[in-house]
Amino acid sequence: MRGWTFLLAGPIVWTVQFFALYGIASIFLTSTTTRVLAGLVSLACLAAIAWLFVHVRRSQPVDDPDAWMHRVSLLGIGVSAVAVFWQSLPALIA
Amino acid sequence: MKSETGFDPALYDRFPTEGERPEGELEELERIWCAPKGWQLLAAVNNNYVGTFYVGTAFLFFVLAGILALVMRVQLALPLQGILPQETYNQFFTMHGTVMMFLFAVPMMEALGVLLLPQMLAARDLPFPRLSAYAFWAYFFGGLCFFASIFFGLAPNGGWFMYPPLTGMAYSPGINADFWLLGIGFIEISAIAGAIEIIVGVLRTRAPGMTLDKMPIYAWAMLVFAAMIVVGFPSIILGTLLLELERAFAWPFFDPTRGGDPMLWQHLFWFFGHPEVYIIFLPASGLVSMMVPTLARTKLVGQNLIVMAFLATGFISFGVWSHHMFTTGMPRLSIAFFSAASMAVSVPAGIQVFSWISTFAVGKPRFNTPTLFALGGLITFVIGGLTGVMVAMVPFDWQAHDSYFIVAHLHYVLIGGMVFPLFAALYYWIPMMSQRALSERLGKWVFWLMFVGMQVTFWPMHILGLMGMPRRVYTYLPGRDWDTINFISTLGAFTIGLGVLLFVIDLARNFRFTPDNDAGNVYGGGTLEWLPTGLYSTRSIPVVKSREPLWDDPDLAKNVEEGRYFLPNSATGLRETIVTSPLRAEPQYLQIMPGPSVWPLLAAIFTAGFFIIMTIQAYKFSFACGILAIVCVLRWLWDTDRLVKEETVDVGAGIRLPTYCTGPSSHGWWATMVLLTVVFMIFVMAMFSFVYLYGVHPRFWTAAADKWSLLAILPAYAAAAGLALLSRHMLAREKTEHWTPGVLFVLAVCALVAGIGIDFWSWLRSGLLPTTSGQGATVYGLLSLESILVFIAVLMAGYISARNGRALIVRPRNNSLDLCVLFTVYAALEGAVTAILTRLFPWV
Question: Where are the transmembrane segments (chain A) (predicted)?
Answer without folding.
Answer: 6-29, 36-54, 74-93
